[in-house]
Amino acid sequence: MFRSILRAAPVAVATISALAFAGVPAAHATHRTVTQCSGGTLASGDYYEVVVHGTCQVPDGASVTVETQLYVTAGSTLDAVTTASVHVKGNLQVGRGAVLGLGCNTETKCTTPTMDEVDGNINSDHSTAVILHSDTVKGDITTLNDGPGLSCTDPSSLVKGIARLGTTPAYDAFEDNTVGGYITSSGLRSCWMGMERNHVGTNILISDDRTADPDGNEVAANRANGDLGCYNNSPAAQFGDGPHIPNAVNGTKLGECAAL
């Protein structure tokens, strides 16, 4: 169901206008300085550390390397759902009420999958949305208490800062990623969540996630070297409306995911 909502969502003209004005100039050498992207675009270049304020986009075709950490501050949006190349050599932190979109493939209107990389971890706590497609994360992905609430229609719960998605209900997506450590999604309150086609070095845990869309909490076609555990989710973890491709684990399928 959620994919039909997403396909029907119109592109927000105001969002595109907000992304169009000049942003951070290109960095040609890395110095021990913190780059503040306060709206606009983050141009190609090597950066020591990046802090996102407002809505910042990594434009199509750009190549961005962050030598240490990348922070998306509270209430801000990083739009890297583009054909850009992004490499964060440290951790990527997502703040309260913030939105992270990283990576692009056919699920998000790119004809060729991108290959963005995070050498450390991706962490979020009480963010609005974390949307990850075709990324390589050498550490762990941990999302705790994400989402704006149990709604697919409340205007206050819409994601408006990612141009390729238009205006869409908030959701978390972990799709087509390669993760060296584990993925944990816990305490979500949002429209939808999908965990699909990931290759994970250790365990996948989905617990206490609640979505307004009855097709939410889709868990399919993942490969994990450890366990896959799903507990106390509503709706219960399911294949949903996508292909019913079982998850493959070297450990044990537990809880709601025992049959998946």
Describe this entry's structure for a reader.
The protein is mainly beta. It has one domain. The chain is globular and about 50 Å long. The two termini are 19 Å apart. This is Right handed beta helix region.
Find the structural class using helix and strand composition. Answer: mainly beta
Largest pleated sheet: 16 strands, parallel
Number of helical regions? 2
As residue ranges, the low-confidence spans are 4-22
Q: What is the count of distinct domains? A: 1
Tell me roughly what share of residues is in helical segments: under 10%
Shape: globular
Using DSSP, what is the number of strands?
29
Radius of gyration from the alpha-carbon trace, in angstroms: 17 Å
Distance between the termini: 19 Å
Give the integer mean of the pLDDT values. Answer: 91
Content of β-strand: 35-45%
Task: Please summarize what this structure is.
This protein is 6% helix and 40% strand. It has 260 residues and is mainly beta.
Itemize the secondary structure elements and their pairings.
Layout: H1 2-8, H2 13-20, E1 34-41, E2 45-47, E3 49-57, E4 63-66, E5 70-72, E6 77-80, E7 85-88, E8 92-94, E9 99-102, E10 117-118, E11 122-125, E12 129-133, E13 136-137, E14 141-144, E15 158-159, E16 168-169, E17 171-175, E18 178-179, E19 183-186, E20 189-190, E21 192-196, E22 199-200, E23 204-207, E24 210-211, E25 218-220, E26 223-224, E27 228-231, E28 248-249, E29 253-255
Parallel strand pairs: 1-3, 2-4, 3-5, 3-6, 4-7, 5-8, 6-9, 7-10, 8-11, 9-12, 10-13, 11-14, 12-17, 13-18, 14-19, 17-21, 18-22, 19-23, 20-24, 21-25, 22-26, 23-27, 26-28, 27-29
Antiparallel strand pairs: 15-16
Organism: Streptacidiphilus jiangxiensis
Signal peptide: 1-22
Protein name: Right handed beta helix region
